[in-house]
Amino acid sequence: MIAFSDIVSLQMSVLLMILTGFVLKKIHIIRPENEKCLSDLVMLVFMPASIIYSFSTDLTIDVLKNGIVILVIGFAVQFLAMGLNKFLYNWCPDSEKRIYQYGTLVSNGGLVGIPIISGLFGMQGVMYANIYLIAQRIFIWSAGISLFTKQKKSWKTLVIQTITNPTVIAIFIGLLPSIFGLSYPNVILNAVDHIGSCLSAMSLIVVGSILADIQWKGLITKGMVELSANRLLIIPLIVLLIGRLLQLPEDIVWISVLLVGMPVASTCAVLARKYNQDYKLASRSILVTTILSMVTLPVLTLF
Q: What angle do CA 85, 91, 94 make, to 5 degrees?
């Protein structure tokens, strides 16, 4: 069980790092032309390094079993969200419905979730979190993209995009030595550890810089309330209930619950803009759920 005080303390740290990015963007230290560079550093350097280091551990039978369990949970959650999306938001205009459905399907587990999991469960927790997120990363490129384009990608394209994703490549790089009973030299692991340790702060600063561009007017709507309830409370509580009914390992259940309960993914606004959808609504959904998650995540620990 996660202590309420621990998650509150972590959330305050997360909030301060997000506010740092927010302020840096407002005072133009982070500019639009270098924001993409920071995002690329997070996604292509800091996150892969953190993943590689988190997998530099002995693969015991228990670790392998837990890895399989949390991978199954990750896929189950994505299929659950897809199923719910068939019944949710049908009263909305199609342009809004796409945004809300994507927000229900994809959480910000990578940028916001990993720092919290790291603080609560250490590097082994980060390893499990990245295994869980494999399913979400696959669904981003399949069901997620189709929400904005209404075009389904071929299995060949999906497989290529999945296995060439930097985070998936990092998992393989991290696992490879353990599979053969080897390990990377300490000089390499130390360097990777130091680079990966930048992930928490930099990812949250990037999130804050993204939020700095969002307009506050008209934030609270019926659709936003429904999305927030589904994203932050209902689906996480379903996962918590099923995990306890199946008597799954407590740490695996809570890592899953916390990742499910993260705010709407930043990719929602990125993809909406790329495919000429309502990116302003997408941006507002990121802001609202990010703010509300500061309250809902500690609340989840009370169950």
A: 75
Tens-digit pLDDT profile for residues 235-252: 999 999 999 999 999 999
Tokens 């790089």, residue located: 173
Give the Cα-Cα-Cα angle 83, 85, 90 (nearest 5 degrees): 135
Has residue 166 got a pLDDT over 70? Answer: yes
Mean pLDDT for the chain? 87
Region 283-289: mean pLDDT is 89
Q: Are 74 and 136 in contact (CB under 8 A)?
A: yes
Which tokens in the block code for residue 177?
């030595």
Encoding tokens for residue 229? 């309830």
The set of residues, in sequence order, having a beta carbon less than 8 Å from that of 130 and lying 6+ positions away, is 51, 54, 55, 114, 167, 170, 171
| 3-state DSSP of the chain | CCCHHHHHHHHHHHHHHHHHHHHHHHCCCCCHHHHHHHHHHHHHHHHHHHHHHHCCCCCCHHHHHHHHHHHHHHHHHHHHHHHHHCCCCCCCCHHHHHHHHHHHHCECHHHHHHHHHHHHHHHHHHHHHHHHHHHHHHHHHHHHHHHHHCCCCCHHHHHHHHHCCHHHHHHHHHHHHHHCCCCCCHHHHHHHHHHHCCHHHHHHHHHHHHHCCCCCCCCCCHHHHHHHHHHHHHHHHHHHHHHHHCCCCHHHHHHHHHHHCCCECCHHHHHHHHCCCCHHHHHHHHHHHHHHHHHHHHHHCCC
Q: pTM for this structure?
A: 0.87
Closest CA to 16 of 199, 204, 210, 203: 204
How many whole angstroms separate alpha carbon 246 and alpha carbon 1?
Answer: 16
